[in-house]
Amino acid sequence: MALIRWQSFPEMETLRRQMDQMFDELAGSDRSASRQYSTSWKPAIELQDTEDHLILRAEIPGVEGKDIDVQITREAIAISGEHRFENKNEEKGFFRSEFRYGSFQRVIPLPVPIQNEQAKADFQNGILTLTLPKVTEARRTVVKLNLGDRTSATPELTSQSTQPS
User: Fold this and answer.
1) CATH number (domain holding residue 48)
2) Are 133 and 112 within 8 A, CB to CB?
């Protein structure tokens, strides 16, 4: 008579293996290091709304300007590119890299329409700065009502803008 090991829940073993694999990938252990360095990532951004412009800043360290593609529409910005892996061989010692390599893409929806043909870009020290002029209709205008005449209140347009508190 042969002895057979009894497993009450074989699904638990499968779940354990999947959890081990997930933690290995998150921790970047040697088992997952054999894969290519194509981990996808997104650049961090800041979006500032001024009176006449939107100013978008994207943090893209280690990437050259020639490797970045920026596409601008009236409603969104698409930033894509690639951080290439430099193959280094260390003869004496251990080499470890935690840098992110591979291609990236990020689409940022804009809160107001912009004049995409007049956008300006600057890329210095790993920071991409886009200055995006708003369309005229999207700029905040103040309407002042003249209440001196009680028969009718006519709006008076002024060129001042208000910033939200």
Assistant:
1) 2.60.40.790
2) no
